[in-house]
């Protein structure tokens, strides 16, 4: 390996390999160095709709790009077909990147892809990415935990497998817990109702963070009681997530104090 090269290529492979790569929350500057190397080395890239155009622009210009278009309730290809496509490309000797928003093993079905590849004897690696909850909260200035009001954080999804039973919202209703909901826009009304039914106050602060870490970022603030109305009125679009808990109010308080000092 030549230490003068910033992104040296690995030795040629006899067979193909797959890298499950996390693209992070949107800002290309938040990619890991390893993710950037894999994009530069790729011969085939299967990517999701939520991956930012600025990140796609960093892919090897000679690579073949295949959009597999996964969003909640909107899939260009069924998951089984994506698994088979990964297998075919790897078995053909290609250096394949499966590029997924956020972290590949958090709410992105990366675990299913990893299992299918391992079962077929394919060489596979996982390249972690900054998950949306961490990236979005940081970009909005919201601490997911704080010793005064949030001793824990739950990451849950508002979109579940067809036929799956409902989430145990009672486990996420503690007042000293931050709840971050992925893919929750379409279920915002029921999420708010479930949390309130299990003891969370209607005045619990909520932030809706849209297009986090990008120039298009928008942060909407409301409460559990007004969440459904806020989503209906403001019509936020994916990718967006919900941050629920007292840390949202704490962050707003800090911003207000900073604005007063600046006057």
Describe this structure in words.
The protein starts with 16 loop residues before the first strand and ends with a helix. The strands form 3 sheets. It has a 5-stranded parallel beta sheet, sandwiched between helices. It has a 5-stranded mixed beta sheet with strand order 8-9-12-10-11, with helices on both faces. Strands 4-5 form a two-stranded antiparallel sheet. 30% of the residues lie in helices and 22% in strands. The longest helix has 17 residues. By secondary structure, the chain is of the alpha/beta class.
Low-confidence parts, pLDDT < 50 over ≥5 residues? Answer: 1-14
Helix content: 25-40%
Mean pLDDT: 89
Counted beta strands: 12
Beta-strand residue fraction: 15-25%
Task: Give a quick account of the main beta sheet: strands, pairing sense, barrel closure.
Answer: 5 strands, parallel
- Gross morphology is elongated
Gyration radius over CA: 20 Å
SS element count, helices: 8
**What is the strand arrangement across the widest sheet?**
3-2-6-1-7
What's the helix-strand series? Answer: EHEHEEEHEHEHEEHEEHEH
Note the gap between the termini.
55 Å
The structural class is: alpha/beta
